[in-house]
Structure formats: C-alpha cells, structure tokens
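queue> pop job 88
queue> type: inverse folding (structure -> sequence)
queue> payload:
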C-alpha cells in the first residue's frame, strides 16, 4: 500500500465516516449484528487495494456504498 491508498482511505473516511469494527460475544439465540452495507464496503475496499488507491477507478463501488448508507436503517 502506498501513499495514494492512504490518501484515498482518508478521503473516504471524511465522506462516509470512519470505519469501525465492533466485536460482540453472542450467546443463546441472539443473532450477531451485521452492518447492512458491509458487502458494499468490502467491495469498495478491495477495489481501492487492487487499484493502488485510485478512487476514480472505484467510483461505482463508492456510489454503491453511498446508496446503501442512505437506504439502510440505523442499527
């Protein structure tokens, strides 16, 4: 990963908010909480990694994340 990738991640964090990870222990019949947009975020992150942080090449995936975040109910 180079400087371009780090800058792209910062730009995305500025627009979408910081990426966070929560670890919860699940017991009994409770289902784990899953970010409704995790698939879109993963695809976008994979694109950024494979394109060395070239956010222009990943615009489609970025738009998908924005649409999901706008449509997803708050957890």
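queue> result:
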């Amino acid at each position: 990963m180079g400087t371009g990738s780090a800058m792209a991640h910062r730009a995305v964090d500025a627009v979408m908010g910081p990426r966070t990870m929560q670890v919860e222990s699940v017991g009994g019949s409770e289902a784990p909480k899953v970010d409704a947009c995790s698939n879109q975020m993963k695809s976008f992150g994979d694109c950024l990694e494979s394109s060395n942080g070239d956010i222009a090449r990943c615009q489609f995936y970025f738009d998908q994340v924005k649409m999901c975040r706008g449509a997803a109910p708050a957890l």
